[in-house]
Fold these 2 entries.
Entry 1:
Amino acid sequence: MTATGRTVAAGATANLAVGTLFAWSLVAEQAAADVGATGAVTSAVFATAIATFAVTLLAVGRLDPQPPSRFLLVAAAVVAGAGLGLAAVSQDPVTLWFGVGLLFGAANGLAYGVAAGMAARAPAARRGAVTGVVVAAYAAGPILLGAAGPRLVAVEGWRACLGGLAVLVTVLLLVAAGLAPGDQDRHQWDEKDGAAAEPVGRGTVLLLWLVFAGGVAPALLVFAHALQLAAARGLGPGASGIAVSVLAAGNLLGRVGGGWLSDSVGRVPGLALALAATGISVGVLATDVPPGVVLTAFTTVGVSYGTVSVLIVAVTTDRVGVRAFPRAYGWVFTAWGCAGLVAPVAGDALLGAGGQARALISVAALPLLPAALALLALARLSSPNVNGERPRPATEHRVELPSTPPEK
């Protein structure tokens, strides 16, 4: 298998494993009732996992030299298995929170960071497609579990299902570690792409952060309140369930298709198209339209969210270079963590406005404005060359990032 093939296989396997975090809602209610927790605790477990995810990815990115990918994936396997196993036998809310919120959240940061970093080393001409497949696997896990999970939980109970998931996730992460290219392949790719460590402008990282935060915030609000939004648009229970499904399917499609398309049309045009589509779709959800149009809007929101999620990885690599990617992307990814914590809360406030909810939901599109302005500034700041490297503008303030010592 080629180095690119191993990267795709390893990254996709790792993300498929840890993406199961987003299926937490399948067992959350039963688990909370069994350990004597309230609904607020189950929400806190997931929110903690998201925050831990982002913090872990940032911390790993700041390590210099970067630990080997295989080592980090094995560490993720141990931490994930311990966290889910501990949660499966928990008898109190604190243990449940620690196992899923802290340990499994940390495993997500380790595995996702490694997977994104490996995809970033793909040749620039194929970087979008490779990143799309790797990142899409993270969204595939919840979809697969969502199809069979409810029946299994009803029959076997949440503890057995969580224990089985602990074994499955551990095995998948160990398989990913075995598939991951070794350090020799990593350094060969760095040299091939001309990805020598170079200074990265703070302005560049800030612009990428704004694009990511503003680009995903409206979609995360829709994800968090999909059933409520669908019902408010006049969809019945069956159609509301379909709305949730097409939202998730659109996310998966956007990750694969958006990455592939960006290799042809470019990262910035692809991001611009995704931002525009999100704004139009949120506007549609704030108006009275037929059910078919509502479902189309849900699908488009999912596709746009998936597109932004994958292209932010590729465009970060294009702008900062392969060697600087782990640290820069660690900072950029905190945008997703912030949006993931703020957007659902904002949705509660907007949708709790009674008769004004339809007009207020359009406010959810406001974060797209700073995202669009940041994307425009990013496009004007500099353009990546064919190798994905970024030329150095003379006027940009720069901050040195530690580089990996050269091999002797």
Entry 2:
Amino acid sequence: MGITYRSADPVRTYRIYKTVWSFCAALCFTLSAVYYVREAGLSPLQLVLVGTTLELACFLFEIPTGIVADLYSRRLSVVIGVALIGCGFLLQGLSPTFLAILGAQVLWGVGYTFTSGADQAWLADEIGADQVAAVLVRTQQFGLGGTILGTVSAGALGLLDLSLPIKLSGIGMIVLAILLGVFMREVNFHRTPVGERETFKHMADTFKHGLAVARKRPVVRTLVLISLIAGLSSEAFDRLWQVKILSFQFPTVFGTSDPAFWFTVLGLVGTLLTLISSLILHKLSPERLTATHPNGVLALLALLQVVGVLAFALLGNLWLALAAMWLRSIADALSWPIESAWLNRNVESRSRATVISFVSQANAIGQVAGGPPLGALAGRAGLRTALVASGLLLAPIPALYARLRTPAVEADRV
């Protein structure tokens, strides 16, 4: 007997799913750093270990959870993942302790791997692969609206109780999982053949093949190394910049100097500045973004990231430190699509997904390896020292970009 109540239009279902996801994520993450420091009292090392635990959970469970999506059901994988993420959000909101927060990272990290790839694969199954690109572009706009609304809501609720937006985000994700279980239809799913399923052997083969391609192609080899170095630096900075910002005295605006208000404002301003910078760059110099060999612009953006991190570490003024932080964030956001397009142009179609996966693995390995030592350094030598070390780790990247020759010159050397 057919289940007729699972008949919602897949495009509408996907848009609602991603919009609610974006809203709940912003509701949870906007003030999570303030919550970790003020309510849970986490040290710099503990903050970094929280991020490392999340990265490790995602890395270890990506393959086993992918098997569920391939073997049983994309829909089931998404529903399980969203529910686990909701439980993780809720756990850390209910218990402001280090162990509970670590457990929450495992829950929502594993949950994320259940949804990773499965949601887009489900969409492609239901509407056809040729229709996916247009839906994703439009859905991204809905997601941005959800992020903005979630950020503002987190700020308002955080003024009442820092844990409130985190707990509500968890409840919201659990409700979303229930609704997806009821309304998310799946009529075109076909199990992936055994030989094509993601397995640990397949992951090992992916690593070996990616390494072989990287050895042969200077651009790919350099981008893998850059991804590893960026990972070594980023985990500590991403977790410790909030600690430094919280050390400043916020000015009083609209009768409040509450960090919940200011972190909401900072999140919105950072998003807006990045968007404006992207639009300006696309308007004034589109040829640099689509250049066949954009090593010059990437070297400049990488240098701006190094300057931003080091300036943020050393400056003792709130507004100057924020300007440095935004410089780093904007340069990072602008460089990603340029680098991604460059990587895609330097690998064949048959090995593209493998090589991109290999580059992502290099970044994850860097984060897991680099985060704890820098967190320990922050505890022993101080926050400024750890942030300076994070910036110095990035220092080789501009030179790595700059030394890459044009494809014609490289071809002569290979």
